[in-house]
Write a structure and sequence with these properties.
This protein has about 400 residues and is α/β, with parallel strands linked by helices. Helices cover about 45% and strands about 15% of the residues. It contains 17 helices and 13 strands. The strands form 2 sheets. Strands 3-2-1-4-5-6-7 form a 7-stranded parallel β-sheet, sandwiched between helices. α9 packs across α12, α10 packs parallel to α11 and α13 crosses α16. The longest helix has 16 residues, at about 135-150. Mean pLDDT is about 95; it is low at about 390-394.
Amino acid sequence: SNTSHPSAPLRVVACIYDLRVGGAETSLLAEYRRLHQYNIDASVLCLGEDRTLEKEFAAAGVPVTFVPPGSRWSRGRYIVRFLRHGNFALVHTMLFWPDVIVRPLARLCRIPVVSSLTNEYYGKEHRQHSHHGALGVIVAQVADALTAKCAAGFHAISARSGEIMARRLGIRNSRITVIYRGRDLEELGRRTPERRLAVREKWGLRETFVFLCVGRQDYQKAHEIAVLAFSEVAGEFPDSVLWLAGREGGNSPLVQSAIAQSPYRDRIVCLGERSDVADLLSAADAFVMPSRFEGLAGSVIEAMSLEVPLVLTDIPVFREVADNRALFFRRDDAEGLAASLRAVAAGEYPAGWVEELRERAEQVFDIESVTAELANFYVKNCRKLPPRPRTGGF
């Protein structure tokens, strides 16, 4: 982009719920530690209390403020004071509560605000499976759509998420900029034979074929489908194992039930939340992601970067990210996934795809180029305010 960057530092604050280890939080850290290169002074405001990544943000030189506990009124007043006295040129909200709470407050303070579109929310499945119930999801969608009118622009992490959420929130496509989430390819490293051997020796693996799933155990990730599919093929490949890396979630009882019923349950390993996913990918022989829907799926990008064969649900965002270089199976189709597992274990994954996927990761998903796009997006929107509603509103 030819967007010029400001001569004086541009003060931007990202409003996120908390600093748990998740896709939005880790991507924010990777991007914000680099924004100073573009003369952007970035900080973070958190509405929640989880401080897991606080030390990492501090080490990156990114100031983090947590809204003190209290009544809704006192917390709202604190946010307004924070925004008014922060001399911010732009506010960036991420995920539901920061979106619906901070967007109108930023508008009240006459500060331009942009928001991220990170997933495919408010669809039929969301209404059916949310613990808030269908009515709760509909109310959330209405609140999100109304407060979205306060935003100057939107950042979609994939073309698919932008397309879906534009329809569901009534946003014009012209207001949406697609900027993929990136990964620090240098930090991930390379999948060298030495690294692979070292990790496999650590886990006591010899000729074992490792299928790896990464992600929290929620309905969206559908790990139970991977368990069912592996149970179908494990007898044909006696030296194979299935690793499930990710924290427990709402779908954990179903996943555990599927494991308990598998005749090969001793070869299905739940690794829990991990900080060494890059090493696990280096040891794995295939990356499996049976998600029912996704906004982008950073772990797919990590697998691409480390040249691991991909076995993915046939959903549009995976086609978009992997550029069709994966073995695809129909959603919720355990038999279809089993066929793909057989194919990849039998060596039928095209040899050249992993190199091509690595090249795609370097060209499209490298954190340096992604951060440059985000900086241009900020500069473009820092002086924008949506027009005031004709009647009422902020």
